[in-house]
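Here's my example:
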Amino acid sequence: MDVVLASSPVDGDVGCWDLQTGAEQMRYRSCASAPHGLASVAGRFLASSQVGNSSSGSILYWSWHKPQVEIKSFPVEPIVSLVSDPDGSFLLGGGSSGNIYIWEIGSGKLLRKWQGHYLAVSCLLFLDNSLIASGSDDGCVRVWNLVSIFGERDNERMKDPFLFSFQEHALRITDIVSGFGSSNSILISSSEDRTCKVWSLSKGKQIRLITFPCIINAIALDPGEDVFYAGGRDGKIYLAALNATCPSNGKFDEYIITCLNEHSKAVTCLEITKDGLSLVSGSDDGTVRVWDIKSQRVIRVLKLRDGPVSNILLVQLPNSTSNLERVAKLPSLDKNLDPTGTLTAIRISPLNGPPDFGYCSSRLMLNAIKELKQRSSVGAMEMELDRLREEQRVCAQLLQRRKKLFDDLWRARIDTLLDDDQ
């Protein structure tokens, strides 16, 4: 089932509705998340950062089938933005001080912490399993390589570990989205300076600037990557072209095609379905609107009980909840940095049948292997082989990522030389 989730920055519930019918499915209680503070962890459970009036915040977990909070964690500082990697192995948090945190979900360990920005990290994005992008109140957009970050022992003192640092925006970054292609993709950022900028990650530079009539709070990229939608503080949703210009009417920038106008207050968040047929928008007017992209008309209006809408997620819920019971057994997230920085939890999935996204401590696994070895059992040999296969798989993935990074850097260097020759 495809569902729409919406949260508010005031103390209230997270609403959950069926995308196709608009029927309410659940209300997840006690959530007050700032923009970009709501995350689906690989579709297995819901996580949210809570930022109140106090100097500290919290991170909460909910199971899909229970309205109550199941796990509470208390980081050392308020976490503004929160995102999970595509596999649901890591949780990435952007702090109010500009620090970026990486937790291992299975063990709760804080693996890495580094000063990513000078001001609060307003938004975070996984480009793939190894590349992340961050936007900040300092107006800077940065792209990071996790392979390099995990390769550093004293990562709190790393000097310029980012791949790119785009500093052309004049004010706070409000949102970032990316296309397909990882390190060869495009990145779009919106800012309170009333512009959206398009960046080429293969070239490491800005390739387009679009100026809007108002501040843009949120953006959503069409799957075809020909256009993108920008939600403005004037309550309008602007449709902008990426690969062509539009006839000038003297009213909008040359890249702005049209605008959609149904919200009575500022548009705060946008999401687009994977098939590119529907656009979902949230607003300070407290409504979530589902748009038919072809006709550019609202086909459904959903209402939060209290306050404005700060976040929207589109999630495909699993058909069975049997593998979600383990959420309550996950550990809370550590406050302090793990001195070893090593991964200690391994995701276990069966060879046959539906995937099981549970976690098992590697220490428990090694103890089980040791015990079985003492019994000289065949099971110990099979478990040892499985462990070696997992290590081989991880090493192979790391090697492929390093090769891809080298190829991307080589292509970028060649493109730069060719551009200079022209």
In short: Residues 2-322 form a domain with the Methylamine Dehydrogenase; Chain H fold (CATH 2.130.10.10). The first strand starts at residue 2 and ends at 7. Residues 280 and 290 are 5 Å apart (CA to CA).
